[in-house]
Structures are given as structure tokens and as C-alpha cells.
Automatic annotation (TrEMBL):
Residues 1-97 form the Calponin-homology (CH) domain. It comes from Labrus bergylta (ballan wrasse). It comes from the Eukaryota. This is Calponin-homology (CH) domain-containing protein. PANTHER family: [F-ACTIN]-MONOOXYGENASE MICAL2, CALPONIN HOMOLOGY DOMAIN-CONTAINING PROTEIN DDB_G0272472-RELATED. InterPro entries: CH_dom (IPR001715), CH_dom_sf (IPR036872), F-actin_Monoox_Mical (IPR050540).
Amino acid sequence: LISVKKQTQDYRGVNVTNLTSSWKNGLALCALIHRQRPDLIDFDSLNEEDMAENNQLAFDVAEREFGIQPVTRGKEMAAEAEPDKLLMVLYLSKFYETFRNTTGNNNGKVSSCFSVKTEFKCSISSRPTHKMTGPLKDSWMSFNNIHRCVLDQQR
């Protein structure tokens, strides 16, 4: 999460401290996209209170421009008390895969949206795979890779 904090620290209304509530209003997702491609999102025009629209904008832009399929919809994200941690890990892993070897709006330096070394700890069996479909199922391999990194870090 340290790298995500750095990528989003100068953005209004964004304070990434975890993989759940920090993402609820959609501004952090928009900031990650804006950091890489400022031409895609007018960040200054976003309303912090319009969670559903912010999230949907990020999901739509990420899918259209980067091929990152959403794992939920903006309205669903806004309606939840906080985003599901596993869904966020799966979704953010796609950003990591997309941007890890690219130069973004980071003074020409290679940047990655976030580090796979997070504080997220869980059991792979905590989410039944028979309920996964579409983009969530497609993201499962990414989660397994992150999970292995977390396990390796704990050793």
C-alpha cells in the first residue's frame, strides 16, 4: 500500500490507508488512472460525494482504455458499507499488471500503481471459487500470485 499512497498522496479527497474504505468514494481509483493518464479523467471536476459516479467512471475508463474489466458496478460499490477486500485486491492487481512496466505521469520514471507487498492476509479458501464468474474468475490467477507474495513475505 505504500506505493499506492505515494501515487495518490497529492490528490484531493484521497487517503489510501487500506484495501477497503479508502476506495469507497471512487477518488482513489480515479487518481490511479489520472496518475498514469491525466488525459482520461478530469480529476478536479470529480465530486467526492458522488461515489457511484466516481467509481463507475473509473471502471468504465479502466475497461475501455486498459482492458481492465470491473469486478462490480459503481452503484454497488457506493451501496456497500465498504468495498470487499478480496475484490479490491483482485481489481487492483489488474492495474499492477497493466502499469508495472510503463512510464506514467511520474516525471518519466517507471512507476507501478502499487506494491504487491501489502498487509492483506487471508486464506485462499476464504472465497468459494464456484461463485466466481467473468472478470472475477479471470482475476483469480492474479490474486494467487499476490497471495504467494504475501506468504513469501511472511516467511
